Amino acid sequence: MHRYAAAALALFAATPLSAEVVETSDDGFVTRATANVAATPMETWLALTRPGTWWNSSHTWSGDSANLTLTPQAGGCFCERVPGEDRADGFSLDGSVVHMHVVQAYPLRVLRMRGGLGPLQGEPATGVLTITLKEIDRGTRILWEYNVGGPMRYEIAEISKAVDGVMDQQLDALRDKLGGLDGASDDVGSESEAALEAQGDQPTDD
User: Fold this and answer.
1) Which are the contacts of 27, defined by CB distance < 8 A and separation ≥ 6?
2) What is the pLDDT of residue 57?
3) The whole model's pTM is what?
4) CB burial readout 131-150, b (16+ within 10 A) else e
């Protein structure tokens, strides 16, 4: 098993989770988490769309998050370059990975991407990651929801916890980069409130 997949499957047993698996079915699950950061929506958006500066390198194929790029526009790619290894008998070619494709981008408000992250990439299942930004007093609230469905060779109870742990770790890293908002709760909140914010189809100025 690739290092990335093994790390994802082992993480839930080693890392306390603050995110939540909010829904499971026979062939899918939904994870959700929030974080409040001491940054404007503009600062948050710019950091969010530069994953190479905060994504955990343990959850990359190359072993270095600096190889990650994200183009925040419809059709854009959350991709990774995998540098070729030096060889004594000649040159080697770089590899590449598509983690997700951008299907919706409203700058400063919503970023939605489709794809199977980590070990899910090798499965027929796919997922939709919706990241919603909302301006709050002294900062920005980030809502992070990953909706996964389709055939997969994993037990839902196991893979959902593993993915939840990885997603929580990435959101924590983004929060740490921007600075957590003192005195603000990062609780997931009610399902109805979170689901409404996660839609993001018709952003308003409210």
Assistant:
1) 125, 149, 150, 151, 152, 156
2) 93
3) 0.82
4) bbbbeeeebbbbbbbbbbee
